[in-house]
Specification:
Strand content: 5-15%
Largest sheet: 6 strands, parallel
Shape: globular
Radius of gyration: 19 Å
Helix content: 40-55%
Order of helices and strands: HHEHEEHHEHHEHHEHEEHH
CATH topology: Rossmann fold
Length: 357
């Protein structure tokens, strides 16, 4: 269980970063529809890796400069310089990025047919350290819209759900329990049990195709790679990611056996991140990329005090940005850049193809 403890430490660092965040190269990055999919709507649940603008502008760090400088050229509520995983999956399916839930009343009803994004950065399966809707509440929002007939049976038949949620629950556990790990196995079972219930709820509402992301290699995010001057990933933290992913795979396997179908498919972010890192390292060795792919493009001038987007009392910027974000893997200390997500997504196409054909 030693590496599970380090896994928790990794996640608590992430969630504190996201709490802080809360207080066009379009043609190159947009994926062309590559499948003959009949999916017309995408419903999204989870955290900052898939959130496209659900934090309120008044409190969300993702709504402040320099977020969004690559796309759409201004902050859009995404935790990146541009597009995130949701955008690439929607584009692959040949549909539009779904409307963020908080903006549902401000768009034309015709735009809602493309689905809806209920994800909020910093959230988890259970309550975390941010006062935003957890996964259960996100599904409540979804179910209410179906009951109100915003979405009907045909819409759900032609839809897919994307779920990206996990580590913030462990971060909250560690924050509340210190280094007491005796109850951790029981807590992990609680997480998986509730996640299973939540996924079955999405299925029960009428969605027949559900993609669930595995956790990325936590030892490779800049917060952890910083200890090696961004030269190497922490293998200890990566073991923690593998441990969680094994449990999640078993949970999804059980759900598929229960329904005697293949409703649930994993999107292997772990190996997709590793593949992207190796690809960008190769480019860097040929002087075609950032010298150090593990180094974030945007970072605070004083580690631990300032972050990407920080300003001081006089409004002066206390962060720096790399020369070309389109060569980076990571945008800030936690989140991939648009280029990072573009490269990561290329490894996920086969899993999506299996789900939608």
């Amino acid at each position: 269980m030693a590496f599970s403890f380090f896994h928790l430490l990794c996640h608590i660092t992430i969630i504190f970063y996201e709490v802080h965040a809360a207080n066009e190269h379009h043609s190159r990055h947009a994926s062309k529809p590559e499948s003959k999919s009949n999916i017309k709507a995408l419903f999204v649940f989870g955290d900052s890796y898939v959130d496209t603008g659900n934090w309120r502008k008044s409190v969300g760090g993702s709504w402040k400069e320099p977020y969004g400088i690559t796309f759409p050229g201004r902050p859009s509520g995404r935790f990146s310089d541009g597009r995130v995983l949701t955008d690439y999956i929607a584009s692959y399916l040949g549909t539009r990025t779904p409307t963020a839930y908080q903006w549902r009343k401000g768009v034309k009803r015709s735009n809602l047919k493309y689905g809806m994004n209920f994800a909020y950065g910093g959230t988890g399966v259970l309550d975390t350290l941010v006062s935003q809707p957890n996964m259960t509440t996100q599904i409540d929002y979804f179910q209410r819209l179906v009951q109100e007939e915003v979405y009907q049976k045909q819409d759900l038949d032609d839809s897919m759900a994307l779920v990206s949620v996990a580590g913030n629950d462990y971060a909250a556990y560690l924050a509340r329990n210190g280094d007491d790990l005796q109850k951790l196995p029981a807590f992990t079972k609680t997480i998986m049990k509730q996640l299973g219930i939540n996924l079955e709820r999405i299925q029960g509402v009428g969605v027949k195709r559900i993609a669930v992301t595995l956790i990325e290699p936590m030892g490779c995010i800049p917060l952890q790679a910083a200890s090696s001057s961004y030269k190497n990933c922490s293998e200890v933290f990566n073991l923690g990611s593998k441990f969680h992913n094994q449990m999640l795979k078993q949970t999804l396997q059980n759900l598929n056996q229960k329904s005697n179908s293949t409703v649930f498919v994993t999107l292997d972010l772990y190996n997709a991140f590793i593949a992207a890192l190796n690809k960008l390292r190769k480019r860097a060795s040929g002087s075609l990329g950032m010298k150090n792919p593990l180094k974030p493009c945007c970072e605070g001038k004083e580690k631990g005090k300032y972050y990407c987007g920080s300003v001081d009392g006089s409004g002066a910027k206390q962060y720096s940005i790399c020369e070309n974000p389109n060569l980076s893997l990571f945008w800030d200390a936690v989140h991939p850049s648009q280029n990072g997500w573009h490269t990561i997504f290329s490894s996920l196409r086969s899993s999506l193809h299996k789900l939608i054909t």
